[in-house]
Write a structure and sequence with these properties.
Length: about 475
């Protein structure tokens, strides 16, 4: 059952081939068996089973909505009523939000059943899911390897068949990079298309809620339900939302695909280069026109991203002071001691590193040299990407420069870790939509991801190309060995 597409599961529920209670139990059982992956921070069996019983009543009366009875999971960055929202941090270990995030609510309104909250890097900072207070997430393809981050729990859960799809967030690649490492499909929508309300903020001008699923078709189905204006999010865009499923089968004959040379640098893993070139040939056979493009500013993507991300993080995370939000230290004797000790105890090493870096970059004397400069560079990067995207429909390349690395590898060298996002951060800097889909395996059996970046609000084209590719390849239906 867990290897089926979302559409097949929905149909099976409607035609009573399976009940929601059976389906929910099936996934809960798999989650328990896959405990070793550490993909979940919280599981709510009781609530899930009572929601499933409710869904069965609706289904019996031919009532309900598109997702009625379908089990899902949320990254633990999304606020949920009735469940803790930890954001992977000791700081929020016991935090219970008084409200649910808009995307949580929208999926609930469609009838989805939340099984639990998935593991993640603390405050979404990381690319290996090794910065979580709740421990690392293992890669279902090889448990000695990382799942990617920061949405590693959602990626591992979908890849291992523990849920049909899960939510994620992407500030610099956190949906796409773990999707690539775990061999699933992940979409980061255009900035403003999907509400960020109720998603714990990391770097607000880059943060975007996204989806992790088994195929482009499943991504389209879920995007239909979560996209659209939200008055609670001031950066949400008020415009008509198309039906993302309707355009999946368009021919690719008018599609122009741009290949930037920098995505095929000799340092990129050979198996990845070969897989992406093979994928390009598949798209060419489907009628797409492939052209070379140039992105000379690519060497500035990572430095620019980390200046802006750390600066915004230092400001966003100032609310965790043990008074308004978060862990409070015991027996402090002054206000200063209370705040200092609460933050010292509540945050992990990487989060502290970024707060310190960000505070430094924003301090007087450094602000102009770093933060302001990064903002100018960001604008140039945006303009360069827009210029290239006026010549082509999508930019294509690998999602990551290497496959999933070993647990513990590179852990002592943060800059090595930051380079795992070398291909993904540009889409966030420019607010562009991007997705990662499986495009093969390395010789050692680890998944390879292909990234497509499109113009603002071109999710239809991205999903159209991805779906077309998935119709003629089977990488996305290849599963890891049973756990
Ligand atoms: N790995 C990147 C970082 O640590 C991206 C994280 C994300 O997208 N949330 O900032």
């Amino acid at each position: 059952m867990h290897a089926q597409s979302l559409r097949t599961l929905i149909k099976a529920l409607r035609q009573k081939q399976i009940s929601s209670t059976e389906l929910t139990k099936h996934y809960l059982d798999r989650i328990n068996k896959a405990n070793e992956l550490n993909a979940f921070i919280a599981i709510d069996e009781k609530h899930a089973l009572s929601a499933a019983a409710n869904a069965d009543k609706l289904l019996k009366n031919r009532d309900g909505n598109i997702l009625t009875g379908i089990p899902i999971a949320h990254k633990d960055i999304f606020c949920t009523e009735n469940m803790t929202t930890t954001c992977g941090s000791k700081m929020l270990e016991n935090f219970e939000s008084p409200y649910s995030a808009t995307i949580v609510k929208r999926l609930e309104q469609q009838g989805a059943i939340v099984l639990g909250k998935t593991n993640m890097d603390e405050f979404a900072m990381g690319s290996a899911n090794e910065n979580s207070y709740f421990g690392p997430v293992k890669n279902p393809w090889n448990k000695a390897h990382v799942s990617g981050g920061s949405s590693g729990g959602s990626a591992a859960a979908v890849a291992a068949g523990l849920v049909p799809f899960a939510t994620g967030s992407d500030t610099g690649g956190s949906v796409r990079q773990p999707a690539a490492f775990c061999g699933i499909s992940g979409l980061k929508p255009t900035y403003g298309l999907v509400s960020r309300f109720g998603m714990v903020a990391y770097a607000s001008s880059l943060d975007q809620a996204g989806i992790m699923a088994n195929s482009a078709e499943d991504l389209a189905l879920v995007l239909n339900m979560i996209a659209g204006f939200d008055e609670h999010d001031s950066t949400s865009i008020d415009q008509p939302i198309p039906d993302y499923l309707a355009s999946l089968n368009r021919p690719l004959t008018s599609m122009r695909v741009g290949l930037p040379g920098c995505f095929f640098h000799p340092d990129i893993d050979n198996d990845i280069q070969a897989a992406i070139h093979a994928a390009v040939r598949v798209l060419e056979q489907a009628g797409a026109k492939v052209v070379d493009v140039n992105l000379p500013l690519h060497s500035l993507w990572i430095p620019c991203y980390y200046v802006i991300a750390c600066a915004e993080a230092s400001s966003n995370l100032s609310r965790y002071d043990g008074i308004r939000f978060g862990h409070r230290t015991a027996n402090a004797e002054s206000l200063r001691e209370l705040i200092t000790r609460s933050r010292t105890e509540g945050f992990g090493v990487e989060v502290k590193r970024r707060i310190l870096t960000g505070t430094h970059l924003l301090s007087s004397g450094y602000f102009d040299d770093y933060y302001l400069q990064a903002q100018k560079v960001r604008r140039m990067i945006q303009e360069e990407l827009h210029e290239v995207l006026s010549q082509v429909d999508v930019i294509l390349g690998p999602t990551t420069p290497s496959c999933a690395f070993k647990l513990g590898e590179k852990i002592t060298d943060p800059t090595q870790r930051y380079l795992a996002d070398i291909f993904t951060v540009a889409a966030n800097l420019a607010g562009l939509p991007a997705l990662s889909i499986p495009a093969g395996f390395s010789k050692t059996g680890l998944p390879i991801g292909m990234q497509l970046i499109g113009k603002h609000f071109s999710e239809q084209s991205l999903l159209n190309i991805a779906h077309n590719y998935q119709q003629s390849t089977s990488w996305h239906t290849t599963r890891p060995k049973e756990l």
